[in-house]
Amino acid sequence: MRPPSVAGETADALPSAPRPRRYSTELVVAVAVEVFNRRGYDATSLEDLAAATQLSKSSIYHHTRGKEHLLRLALQRALEALFATLEEPESRSGEPVDQLRHVLGRATEVLLEETPYVALLLRVRGNTETERWGLERRREFDRRVTELAASAIERGQVRPDLSARMVTRLLFGMVNSISDWFRSTSPADGEEVVASVLAVFDGLLSPTASTRPRMR
Amino acid sequence: MRPPSVAGETADALPSAPRPRRYSTELVVAVAVEVFNRRGYDATSLEDLAAATQLSKSSIYHHTRGKEHLLRLALQRALEALFATLEEPESRSGEPVDQLRHVLGRATEVLLEETPYVALLLRVRGNTETERWGLERRREFDRRVTELAASAIERGQVRPDLSARMVTRLLFGMVNSISDWFRSTSPADGEEVVASVLAVFDGLLSPTASTRPRMR
After folding, report:
1. In Å, how far is B171's CA from the nearest CA of chain A?
2. Burial status of residue A59 (CB atoms within 10 A of its CB: 0-12, 13-18, 19 or more)
């Protein structure tokens, strides 16, 4: 369907309108995420979302159940992508250290591919039911990764003087921080980021671990 | 001086008032920082700050020039502590890799000591002059650290396949992310964080670097 008219004009009548002619729910969510990240979720009103999408408020309600529902759809996208990395074969069999390395690299790729959605997830504070749900799912992801780190340390594959919780927090904190500065310009940049993250990980492997992956 | 009365009562008349009897500017800033971090700077009104400090708006103006000035005082505190780490003797002489290691460890300590102030600095978006000033100072700090990383790589002390920019962004991104989860309970926790951050750093040193610090 076509975005509703602004100030009584039809969309066709607007000269060189840069906006897309058709709005999918996905696109409304994408615009909302940009506004949430720029203004903060709490500070964003439905009026702000209407202005950014050039949709009427009623049209936004046609696509979604409102601001909190837009947040849920956005967080869902980030969380599904992150949890999917845990279900990949390389995350489910083999040595724990290799599983952990795989999840770390893939989570970095997810962040690079879905930057605004993951950035929003990372900023969620817990003031609404949806935010608390997002926080709880994030914690669940962290728990799963911490278990992998604990197994890798237990088997002597990661430096034993580090705790599983600390390894997970520092490594994934490092990955999460990428959303603060990464702007995709070329795929090569993304590859450098992933390779560098894995280089940091490899620096934490026990020198004696027989399963130590080759650097690069 | 004494906080102004609420609902016409004097402070003395309030039973078991949990609030401090005297407000220093420092304390007003501390409360404001807590509110900014919880609600977001943009979403915080002077009314919110008045409610949180239990001060009247005019009394807040007695301490500061208003909301943006409170932000500036808070950012100043974080930035002064961070920049001071660059002026310490260990950051100014010796091998670049050791200088870099020192700054990284000390910046971690600053973050642990001044968590809410640094967290606020890291969330600054650039909508106001003060925010843009904060962002510019952060970038200046990053530039100084990136120069150290470049020297360390040039001298073969840090893995040469990593770029100075990437090393700086990943390591300091990792440190910055600590503000998302660190809650000081005991000094020992903080020491574990610093030691773990330095362990990650040591993992990036060139195996051939003669200046490689011993791992604990």
Report:
1. 7
2. middle
